[in-house]
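Quiz preparation item.
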């Protein structure tokens, strides 16, 4: 389960979790028939064609109702068949069976290549992309693309920054470090003064580790869908090794912890001031608030600063997490399905509700660049204008990455090697080499030619 899904778990308890796979399959409503069955939502305009969709955003009912109210060409029949991995398992079953998939599916961006290579998703570039392309930034579009083809409409993202405890920084005379070298120096200063750990290097956040390696200059995967069985893999380049070596050094010096994140123990440490910083994405305030951080005696102690840089003269912004709406190859009418994918979570009310309730960090530029969002004084950060100062500039500067068709295997393999690194059974160089060998072997077993 990815971090994005973990942070939403508590919110999804209010959604009908027991919905069966068939509850809103592509057979739930024939496009053009004007009928729908087994939908979570009510269809207000009965005479319009219906597009079925799966998704798990906590405010999906509102989002779908807004779309249906505003649209006079098509209506959406929505259901939640499970969150993240549960949904993907059902989608994979439908792919194998050749039926049972919805017309539109909510999917995390790093999973798009996994399903695209199975011909389970539709390139929506020819179905209205030119009319909406200016609504999102270059990096957002790249994250939902495979080569020149577009397999999703970006909805939310996770520009990465450094969340920190103001009280700890003030106590030890620390200013937010602008570089990773300064981060290490500040960590040493706090330790020498008897202070807490400066941060945490966890094995279970492989996507974040990958992002920091990319920030350093790594390019883990190169992939061209015109050559679908050929992939470039570079997991043991110097940049990747340098990042692992950096965190290995901080771990050995006792400057950072190694607790798995998103556990009760880790959250307890965050609340109790065990860590001075938390390197995470823009969705973190919502996750932390839901976990009880920033409340009671913890209120008003948090602030956020830009992510430290490896090279301050050549800053690189990175992303962690993000979801999109994709059209499946089982869609009865791909053009209508694309209209839904482009239009869902794109109206002002849905976007505003999403970011105000910390459900999404919006990628739609009319929200991302709106004065209301940019100037928002974030309660978790004691009224700091975090979007203006940190998250929006990071999101606008993000250039996107290339994901692999076997991202989950890569993340699991990364977790294994980082765990070994933390335990001291391998060095950073060995961890990178073993990770590279493991993933290359797996790719070849799956029939890929590795370059």
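Solution:
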């Amino acid at each position: 389960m990815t971090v994005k899904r973990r942070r939403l778990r508590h919110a999804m308890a209010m959604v009908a979790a027991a919905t069966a796979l068939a509850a809103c399959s592509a057979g739930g409503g024939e496009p053009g028939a004007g009928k729908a069955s087994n939908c979570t939502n009510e269809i207000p305009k009965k005479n319009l064609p219906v597009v079925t969709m799966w998704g798990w955003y906590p405010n999906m009912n509102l989002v779908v109702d807004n779309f249906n109210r505003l649209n006079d060409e098509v209506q959406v029949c929505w259901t939640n068949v499970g969150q993240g991995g549960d949904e993907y398992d059902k989608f994979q079953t439908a792919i194998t069976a050749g039926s049972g998939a919805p017309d539109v599916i909510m999917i995390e961006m790093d999973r798009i290549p996994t399903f695209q290579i199975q011909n389970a998703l539709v390139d929506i570039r020819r179905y209205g992309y030119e009319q909406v392309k200016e609504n999102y930034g270059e990096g957002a579009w790249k994250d939902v693309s495979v080569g020149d083809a577009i397999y999703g409409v970006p909805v939310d993202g996770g520009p990465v920054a450094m969340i920190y405890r103001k009280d700890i920084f003030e106590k030890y005379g620390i200013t937010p470090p602008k570089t990773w070298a300064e981060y290490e120096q500040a960590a040493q200063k706090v330790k020498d003064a008897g202070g807490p750990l400066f941060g945490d290097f966890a094995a279970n956040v492989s996507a974040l580790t990958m992002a920091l390696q990319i920030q350093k200059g790594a390019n883990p995967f190169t992939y061209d869908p015109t050559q679908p069985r050929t992939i470039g893999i570079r997991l043991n380049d110097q940049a990747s090794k340098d990042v692992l070596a950096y965190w290995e050094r901080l771990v050995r010096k006792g400057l950072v912890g190694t607790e798995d994140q998103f556990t009760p123990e880790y959250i307890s440490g965050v609340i109790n001031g065990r860590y001075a910083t938390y390197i995470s994405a823009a969705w973190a305030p919502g996750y932390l608030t839901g976990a009880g951080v920033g409340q009671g005696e913890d209120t008003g102690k948090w602030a956020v600063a830009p992510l430290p840089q490896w090279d301050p003269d050549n800053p690189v912004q990175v992303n962690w997490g993000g979801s999109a709406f994709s059209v499946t190859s089982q869609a009865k009418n791909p053009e209508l399905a694309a209209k839904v994918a482009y239009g869902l979570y794109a109206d002002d009310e849905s976007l505003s509700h999403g970011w105000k309730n910390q459900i999404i960090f919006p990628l739609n530029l009319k929200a991302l660049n709106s004065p209301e969002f940019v100037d928002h004084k974030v309660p978790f950060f004691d009224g700091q204008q975090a979007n203006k100062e940190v998250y929006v500039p990071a999101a606008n500067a993000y250039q996107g990455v290339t994901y692999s068709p076997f991202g989950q295997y890569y993340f699991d393999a990364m977790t294994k090697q980082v765990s070994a690194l933390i335990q001291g059974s391998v060095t950073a160089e060995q961890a990178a080499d073993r990770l590279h060998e493991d993933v290359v072997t797996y790719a070849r077993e799956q029939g890929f030619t590795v370059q």
